[in-house]
Write a structure and sequence with these properties.
152 residues, Diaminopimelate Epimerase, Chain A, domain 1, four-stranded mixed β-sheet
Length: 152
């Protein structure tokens, strides 16, 4: 008999701590916000559509400067997407920046380096956020939680 809730976590504790620390560091010089959402499968939809859905569900469009970004990963399905709110999407360089950041993440994932890939991606997003949305004491800090959000 198996006790309920005793499933293996999607990311081990060390990976979780490393990713959350990277989010905190990446957000330290910006008013921007980065969230990470990890689940097993991206059933019945495209990863970008799922990232957009989660962005809305997590109220990420409600940041002061409309500069939040979500990094979405479906581990079993091997899918991922990066989605940024309207202001950061445009200011970071439109599709060119986002495709470049996504290709770097893809290379790490292809090589089985999930944690390293996510951290590198978060750092790159953080640099873009800091460039276009530098820290401003008049804007609320850390409008969104830094913890990883896990789906099923």
């Amino acid at each position: 008999m198996f006790p309920f809730g005793n499933k293996k976590p999607l990311l081990d504790e060390d990976a979780q701590h490393q990713i959350v620390a990277t989010i905190k560091s990446a957000e330290s010089n910006t008013t921007g916000e980065i969230r990470v959402f990890v689940e097993h499968k991206c059933s019945y939809m495209d990863a970008m559509d799922r990232a957009k859905e989660l962005f809305a569900r997590l109220n990420m469009a409600k940041t002061h400067s409309r500069n939040a970004v979500i990094v979405y990963i479906a581990l079993t399905d091997r899918q991922y997407a990066l989605f940024g709110d309207v202001e950061i999407y445009q200011k970071a360089g439109g599709p060119v920046f986002w495709e470049k950041a996504a290709s770097k993440l893809k290379a790490h994932l292809r090589d089985g380096r999930l944690t390293e890939g996510m951290c590198d991606c978060i750092n790159e997003l953080g640099m873009a956020l800091a460039m276009h949305f530098p820290y401003d004491a008049s804007i609320p800090r850390n409008e969104l939680p830094d913890e990883i959000v896990f789906g099923k």
